Amino acid sequence: MTSRNSTPVVISPGKGLGFITLGASLHNVLTRVKSSPQSYPAIDLSYSPTDPLRTPVLLQLPSNGLRLRFDGPDQRLRLIEVLDFSRVSLVYKNQDVLKGGKADELGTSPQGPSFRHVYNRLFGPSYPGEYVPPADNSPYGTYVLSYPGVAFSFPLQHSAWSDQCDFVALLSSSAALPATSMSIFQGSSWPEVRAKLFTQQPLHPRSSAILGKSRDSVADEVEEFHILGAGKLEVVRRTSPPLLLNLGETTPQDLIAEFGPPDAIYRKHDRRISIHRVAGAGGGDAVHLSPSPSRGMDIPDTDHSSSNSVTDDSDDEISPSSIGDPTSLPAECFFNYFHHGFDAFISYPVTPGPAFPNSEISDASPPPSSSQLTATKIILHGNVPGSYPFNRHRRTRWVIHLDQSDDGLTSESPYDEISEQLREVWKGAYSSQAEERAMQRPMVLNRGWGDSPESSVEFLGDWEETTAKGPRSGTDDHDGGLGNTELFGFPGLLFEVMKNGAVSCLTIY
């Protein structure tokens, strides 16, 4: 998609443009684009640094004349726009959208297809579109001509516009210029879709790799995780029934049967965080992130080994083929599901975190002694734009159900809101206000040092030095490029939080 001389790209109204499919995840599209730097030499990503999870994300490919709009919460492609017809060869049902257009020596782009070409040769008759008057003193407004799943924008002289005019005659006259852009969307027309563009349910999957394949040949895609407490998670999937994961019981073979083989497996050696499990200097009490040591929570490993390559001896890559023989797996390793948006920590069974106090779920019983490996932690990745591990996993959405009556805390909730509700839920577990304050001090996690960001975990300062002071700045500041985030813990849950309050990662154990 780099020039008019490249292989033509097929327009599929309501579906996509070439391999770029409506409903595809930002991770899927960006990974494909980045894998072909010769075809896509320039990539621009735009997002809100203060609210990256609730505002649209824009992926622009200026060398290809394309702009892609993704919704913020789910990061799925909602709108494909062609802004420069000279930089991509487009065809529809074997007809060229624009014949022979090339940018001149000064880089000035030619105009797009004429109304006559669109109307007579490409898409045929259409209902009247809508006219958008000029927003400034420009002599031209914009006439948007819609077909099911595709629309064209034509500059139209404002002085020539009238509600009483025949739009076909008007757009065929000299008052109208050739199209300046084309949009591909899901819906019957642009006016009908516009208001629900970022909220309607996408028809197509997040990964173009599973388009047209049977349910038996590929694993169903994950829609959302429901966190129920006591180590129980319900996985909502696109077409299959919901799946219940029980930490300490679900085996590696169960994960493979439901989600397919992991994209990578890593053995875990590093225990640099374990210093915070022992007594502090001077014989002080052990540092815990839980409201009470009796609740059975300790600081979990935060090194999720989700890097695509291994450059540190704390992580060893294991061939995914070894999962066919359970005895070949090490006692502790990570199953990395980059395209599902989560990791699973595999080890011998341990008692998971407690149930939420007001829920109807009981605390899990201590597991019996067993040599059977199980999933003991699930790590859900937010893929927040601006975060250090951005685009390593696709975004996973989640809901924490504190009791049966609430709507739950979601992956889009600001952490201050999450913290306020969790503090209230666990209020009775603290022995004093001093203990409550002590347990809620954050740790600063730096993923910016070292060659392998996930295996080079550094903690900056001690608990007192990293205490949050006042509201977060609301900026995309990364402390001089270190990629620092803060860790906050509640029983069974560990949140990795960015400076703008977005939850970058949630560990359930």
Protein model, in words:
By secondary structure, this protein is α+β, with helices and mostly antiparallel strands. The chain has 2 domains: 9-196; 220-508, no CATH class. 10% of the residues lie in helices and 26% in strands. The protein has 7 helices and 28 strands. Strands 18-17-19-20-21-28-27-26-24-25 form a 10-stranded antiparallel β-sheet, covered by helices on one side. A hairpin with a 3-residue loop joins strand 1 and strand 2 (16-17). The chain is elongated, with a radius of gyration of 26 Å. The two termini are 45 Å apart. Mean pLDDT is 80; it is low at 1-5, 101-109, 270-315 and 449-482.
SSE blueprint:
Elements: E1 9-12, E2 16-17, E3 20-21, H1 26-34, E4 44-46, E5 57-61, E6 66-70, E7 77-82, E8 90-92, E9 95-96, H2 115-122, E10 130-132, E11 140-147, E12 150-157, H3 167-172, E13 181-184, H4 190-193, E14 222-229, E15 232-237, E16 243-246, H5 252-259, E17 264-268, E18 315-318, E19 333-337, E20 342-347, E21 374-381, E22 398-400, E23 409-410, H6 415-425, H7 433-439, E24 443-446, E25 458-459, E26 484-490, E27 493-497, E28 503-508
Parallel strand pairs: 1-8, 14-22
Antiparallel strand pairs: 1-2, 2-3, 4-5, 5-6, 6-7, 7-13, 8-9, 10-11, 11-12, 12-13, 14-15, 15-16, 17-18, 17-19, 19-20, 20-21, 21-28, 22-23, 24-25, 24-26, 26-27, 27-28
Protein name: Isoleucyl-tRNA synthetase
Region (Disordered): 281-325
GO biological process, one term: Golgi to plasma membrane protein transport
